[in-house]
Every structure is written in structure tokens, then in C-alpha cells.
Amino acid sequence: MAKLTKNQKIALSKIEAGKAYSIGEGAAKVKDVNYAKFDASIDIDVRLGVDPRKANQMVRGVVTLPHGTGKVVRVLVLCNPDQEEAAKAAGADYVGLDEYINKIKGGWTDIDVIITQPQIMGKIGALGRILGPRGLMPNPKSGTVTPDVAKAVEEVKKGKIDFKVDKNGIVHSSIGKVSFTADQIRDNAREFVNTLIKLKPATAKGTYLKSIYLSTTMSPGVKIDTKSVDA
Question: Which of 33, 41, 108, 223 ranks highest by number of CB atoms within 10 Å?
Fold first, then answer.
């Protein structure tokens, strides 16, 4: 087992062993234990009482965080010419169609989100082997395939994110930055978890929220009391 660094030991000493913090306390604590010299991301990990191998227990959705993610999200809109101006006005970083499809075929993926129209998906299908592994493939369930591309751009820029439970039953996402206030981190975390609660599959039995942890890019995890989400 690797030895802990001095900074790691100091961070761990600030977390009470075995304690599950309220969501408000945890938001403040995760800022306190951060020791990165940069504006690290705040991550949330929620273990759910579901079996992702069963289609009727797959948890997937979108959430718009009240304070955004703190990240600069680069958005590409692949659309017909009549939607280009609206997409640009909404804040899209790149707008077009064939020229960007060809760029992607050539290996260009310097973007975070791709938004497109339903009638364009036929052209994008061939890009699946490039976009799929990078999580960039537009999907109606995440709101990135829509007739109203301008609205989708605005939502993404304001902090809309999509998430999906992994094979271990864990949902992981970044929900802010260390530079956020503790209240902003708390609000974002609460919105994220409450969205998961709304998506609870009818077939899920037993405890649904098994555990919640907040952490930064380089900090230990801070355990959150699952009953404190609505407190």
C-alpha cells in the first residue's frame, strides 16, 4: 500500500472517522480538506440499491445544477442552416454540419457536448465508434437530440449534466468547484441527489440511497448522511 503524503495525512486528520456528515457540513468539510493548488472539481458519488444489469433498474437522467458546474463547457451544434444563428446566439462554441462531421471523422473531438436535431442523426450514426467511447454521442434521453437546439445549448451552458449508474450501482458526477461557497456545493449536491430519488425504479427493493460521498480531485471522500439530503 502506498504511503500517505503529508498533505493526505493532514486532510484525513480533519475528517472524523466513521462520521456521516450532514449535507451542509459535508459541503464545508470537502472544501476544508482540499489541498490542491488549483481550483479542483467537487465530485459526488452515490451508491444506489439497484442492479444495473436489469433494464428496469437502470438509473439515467439529466439535472440542471442551480449554481452550474463551474466548468467551461465547449458545445458543438450539428444542425441545418436555419438553426445556426439561434444556436450561436444561445452560446454554442461551434455550429455547422458537414464540415464538423468531416473534422470528427479525421479525429477532432476537442468538445464536451454535441447537440443535434433528430433529422441529423442519420448523418451522425457513422461517428458512433469515435463519439461513443468518449461519451459524446448525442442522445434524446440526455436532451442532446432535440428540435430546439438553442434551448438545449442554454441549458448545458447553465449547468445541465447527464448521468448514468455504472455497473457497480454507483452514480458519479462533478457538481462544482472548490472555489464555490459551501452553500453552493450543498445546493448542487442536494439537487443532484433529489433528482436520483425521483428516478428511483419501481422494481428497486430495500435501501435505495446506500451511500453518498463528496470529494475533490485530490482529497479523501467525505461521507454524507443520506437522511440529511432534505434537511
Answer: 33
